Amino acid sequence: MAAVTNHNNKPYEPLEYSTEEGSLRIFGFWLFLAADMVLFACLFATYLMYIHHTAGGPSSKELFEVKDFMIETVDLLVSSFTCGLATLEMRRGNKKATIAWLIVTLILGLVFIGFEVKEFTGMVQEGATLQTSAFLTSFFILVGTHGCHVSIGILWMLCIIAQLATRGINAQTARKVFIIGLYWHFLDVIWIFLFTAVYLTGLVL
Amino acid sequence: MENIKHFLGNFFVTGEPMIYMADVAIVLVSLGIIFVLTYFKKWKWLWKEWLTTVDAKKIGIMYIIAALLMLFRGGVDALLMRTQLALPNLHFLDSQHYNEIFTTHGTIMILFMAMPFIIGLFNIAVPLQIGARDVAFPFLNAVSFWLFFAGAMLFNLSFVIGGSPDAGWTSYTPLAGKELDPGVGENYYLLGLQIAGIGTLATGVNFFTTIIKMRAPGMSLMKMPMFTWSVLVTSVIIMFAFPVLTVALAMLTIDRLFDAHFFTVAAGGQPMQWANLFWIWGHPEVYIVILPAFGVFSEVIATFSRKKLFGYHAMVFSMVAISVLGFITWVHHFFTMGAGPGVNSFFSLSTMLIAIPTGVKVFNWLFTLNKGKIQFTTAMLWALAFIPNFLIGGLTGVMLAVAPADYQYHNSYFLISHFHYVLIGGTVFAAFAGLTYWWPKMFGHILNERLGKWAFWVFMISFNVCFLPMYLVGLLGMTRRMYTYPAGLGWTSLNLIETIGAFGMGLGFIIMVYNIYWSARYGERDTTGDPWDGRTLEWATTSPAPEYNFAHIPTIQQVDDFYYMKKEGRQKEISKAPYKPIHMPNNSGVPIIMAVFFFIGGFGLVFEWIWMGILGGIGVLACMLYRSFETHDHHYIPVDEIERTEREAGRFS
Amino acid sequence: MSNEHTQAHASEHTGFPWKHVIGLVLSLILTFAALWCVTSFAFSPALIVTVIVILAVVQAFVQLFMFMHITEGSKVWQITAIGFGAFIAFCVVAGTLWIMLFAL
Ligand code: HEM
Ligand SMILES: [Cu+2]
């Protein structure tokens, strides 16, 4: 365990950075996140371009429910918080607490996906589908791409929980917990922009 | 029965004798390869030494072999086109066939020839130049290579199964949309590029991390070799440009497979949004293939002028400036769309601005040559020829950047000539220069200089014979992508000259390939590891370099430190005993298996067999899962093995 | 290289996770503030959108600094990468809207 006993507020080296491999991968992951940001930017740009291209189909004002997307938002914000706590407990060397917070995060993630699936199926039942208009195509793909990221995150988190449970906290698992944390917070950031540019803006424009 | 016949008739491309010949050739070559491997019992060797390798040096060689094969295929496409255009009203190719051929030619040359060629050079030179043992993520590096390879194979498969894409390498909608282009050709384009593109993105992340975090002690950024600098800057462009390609391809795939409306006018989509996204990636892409070329020339010119590179800082800053500016010029590819004057003026200006840092670089090369003791080796000849040829391409580029004038030049042979001057005069010349320069490092022998010079002169002169007249024929009104033209427009003789030039380039390529064969058998062995009296660290180790690159990581004091090490006798430290065990990554079969699943999934989606796409996806996920749970992924090279290797290289006794 | 990533603080080892709680509270406040702007005011859409985008950017910073430890590791490079990514993202969105809406 890296200098867990260090109490005098001096900088210390967290376990996930303790190997060269760990610090390389964390760095590489930051780069991936920066690239992923550009990926989302393209989807955002296309969506914003098509906001009014509803081709006679339903518009954003008719489709978005304040209550639903607020629940999704708060759910995801809280999950980002719990994921942060998981990283914190990992750094304190508490395996059980780390796993517990990861599981809470994972459940919140599932709830989020549940709401999103409900939202999408509801829309499809009302006849608002991927094929209805350019607006809806870009809406479903933008929001759906974020949803895909979250789903992959959930699967990934499951793997990490399994590895933590069997191997405990070591340089390798610590790195993985830290990186999935980065990923999860990043998805929260993307969601903030979705919330703003898609849902809130949809109510205004 | 009828159904099956119908299906097979559509599945395999039929009708043209040329296609059947290709079918036969493919089957024969495959059988031949299988036979040779089995006969000489080489399967295990192939699997252990190559297919599962994570060693950047070997991955680099595989990239370059693939790139040369693709250069051949793209070159044959080019010759077919030039044959068709040699004289007016020929019927060598029909219009559909011509469309397919310029599409595959362009796509293959850019994505499956130029890209892997330069990425191959990254792999060969960068870890050595910065004194590293490998790249930051060797496993990911293998994944990148195999994804590129799977994508390239998928794309090439279209030739015999299902039919080739035919909407140009730019694949503009609505032409490339489902309504106007049913069939599987465009799906091949979309999925082949998608798979290869993901690999390239990973390469960008990998090399950026490698260069930032794994340099030898003492090598601050401003002491890096110029090629490494160019790769660093290129990696940045890759990381931020390729996600855009990923999105654009995915959107068009979704439009075609699921009847969505990103680019269909009827439901509110805008076809030009494809062009917009394509070029947001596409313009940075041209810098991705040209900046490493600049890097190669910087190394070659400095080495063979026996001088330090002139204006190191200016070189670096101009590359950084190019990388940023390169992201805000994309509209120059569709000035004629008719965006407002504000838009066209802005992008016209930003494009011209790029000419400034590029000009700075040209002057720096010239000043490096100035008063140098120039050695006219083959690599140097390519570099010297690059300067005027690239200049022609660049200056005509500035002409194209003038938005109102571009309404005249756009999509004419003037444009075709412009981008071939920069792509061939820049990237391809650099690929050949780099190949000649680093060949000893890759294989331990030197390419024959005499044959190399023949290849150079034949190729370079033919290149100008082929493409200089294209400027004229373009100004005379000949547009690109025409499959034939009438007589009497004043185009005929120019076209004939172009075709002669094209075949000359083919001859140059053949000489080059013969040179590879000849030199492998009789070429001079490189026993020193430093055949050119080089200036950078890759020349400090043996040729080829041992698996671990350097027995000790050197400490760097200045730019071109190896040159000074040699003067001061410091270079011996790198191989001096005693040694310590060296940490190395294990080989892995996962990357190639994962790429196979990508291929399967991609192939399924091409034919819109969703189940097969899902199957491939599950396979990919399974590979990732396996990898995630793997713990023993590295080993140590013991000291006695290092001693043995160094002794065999004559560096330790 | 190995000394540049020793930036985390040992205070993380004990006590109540104030930083995280503040981060959560801030994000909730910013989120509801944005919702409030949209539902309770009748300003011009342009103004409202500007305000909520600013709130979103602020919230992104909250995540980056409170939760994502962006200042650890090779922090200069990480911040540069994210910053450059944000710049390109901005160019893509603003550029696309400018070019493709044919408004100017
Ligand atoms: C042997 C050398 C080459 C010859 C003779 C050649 C010739 C041609 C010809 C005749 C065309 C089609 C013009 C038209 O009908 O519109 C073309 C297009 C093109 N070439 Fe080449 N080329 C050569 C090498 C290259 C290389 C090395 C690259 C890239 C690195 C390249 C990239 C392209 C591209 C992107 C197109 C546009 C395809 C399209 O219209 O979609 N070519 N080339
Ligand atoms: Cu361009």
UniProtKB/TrEMBL annotation, chain A:
InterPro entries: Cyt_c/ubiquinol_Oxase_su3, Cyt_c_oxidase-like_su3, Cyt_c_oxidase_su3-like_sf, Cyt_c_oxidase_su3_a-hlx, QoxC, Ubiquinol_oxase_su3_dom
Any matching Pfam family: COX3
Membrane topology, from the record: Multi-pass membrane protein
Keyword set, alphabetical order: Cell membrane, Membrane, Oxidoreductase, Transmembrane, Transmembrane helix
EC number, UniProt record: 1.10.3.-
Transmembrane segments: 27-51, 98-115, 135-165, 177-200
Primary location group: membrane
Domain Heme-copper oxidase subunit III family profile: from-to ranges: 27-203
Reactions catalysed according to its record: 2 a quinol + O2 = 2 a quinone + 2 H2O
Subcellular location(s) per record: Cell membrane
Claim: Transport is one of the keywords in the record: no
Function summary: Catalyzes quinol oxidation with the concomitant reduction of oxygen to water.
Assigned protein family: Belongs to the cytochrome c oxidase subunit 3 family.
Entries under NCBIfam families matching the protein: QoxC
Name listed for the protein in its UniProt record: Quinol oxidase subunit 3
Species annotation: Scopulibacillus daqui
Upper classification of the organism: Bacteria, Bacillati, Bacillota, Bacilli, Bacillales
TrEMBL record, chain B:
Cofactor (UniProt): Cu cation; ferriheme a
Enzyme class: translocase
Cytochrome oxidase subunit I profile domain location: 41-557
Gene3D superfamilies: 1.10.287.70, Cytochrome c oxidase-like, subunit I domain
UniProt key word ATP-binding: no
Pfam families xref list: COX1
PROSITE patterns in alphabetical order: COX1 (PS50855), COX1_CUB (PS00077)
Catalytic activity: 4 Fe(II)-[cytochrome c] + O2 + 8 H(+)(in) = 4 Fe(III)-[cytochrome c] + 2 H2O + 4 H(+)(out); 2 a quinol + O2 = 2 a quinone + 2 H2O
Subcellular location(s) per record: Cell membrane
Membrane topology reported for the UniProt record: Multi-pass membrane protein
Residue intervals passing through the bilayer: 20-40, 61-81, 101-126, 138-161, 188-208, 229-254, 286-304, 316-335, 347-367, 379-403, 415-439, 451-476, 496-517, 584-603
Keyword tags: Cell membrane, Copper, Electron transport, Heme, Hydrogen ion transport, Ion transport, Iron, Membrane, Metal-binding, Oxidoreductase, Respiratory chain, Translocase, Transmembrane, Transmembrane helix, Transport
Entry EC no(s): 7.1.1.9
Protein's pathway: Energy metabolism; oxidative phosphorylation
Main location: membrane
Family: Belongs to the heme-copper respiratory oxidase family.
Functional summary from the UniProt entry: Cytochrome c oxidase is the component of the respiratory chain that catalyzes the reduction of oxygen to water. Subunits 1-3 form the functional core of the enzyme complex. CO I is the catalytic subunit of the enzyme. Electrons originating in cytochrome c are transferred via the copper A center of subunit 2 and heme A of subunit 1 to the bimetallic center formed by heme A3 and copper B.
NCBIfam families from the UniProt entry: CtaD_CoxA (TIGR02891), QoxB (TIGR02882)
Protein name as it appears in the record: Cytochrome c oxidase subunit 1
From TrEMBL, chain C:
InterPro entries xref list: Cyt_c_oxidase_su4_prok, Cytochrome_c_oxidase_bac_sub4, QoxD
Short name of any one Pfam family annotated for the protein: COX4_pro
Name recorded for this polypeptide: Quinol oxidase subunit 4
Native species: Scopulibacillus daqui
UniProt keyword annotation of Membrane present: yes
Catalytic activity reported: 2 a quinol + O2 = 2 a quinone + 2 H2O
Keywords: Cell membrane, Membrane, Oxidoreductase, Transmembrane, Transmembrane helix
Cited function: Catalyzes quinol oxidation with the concomitant reduction of oxygen to water.
Transmembrane segments: 21-41, 47-67, 79-101
Domain of life of the organism encoding this protein: Bacteria
Keyword Isomerase: no
E.C. code: 1.10.3.-
Topology within the bilayer: Multi-pass membrane protein
Family: Belongs to the cytochrome c oxidase bacterial subunit 4 family.
Compartments (UniProt record): Cell membrane
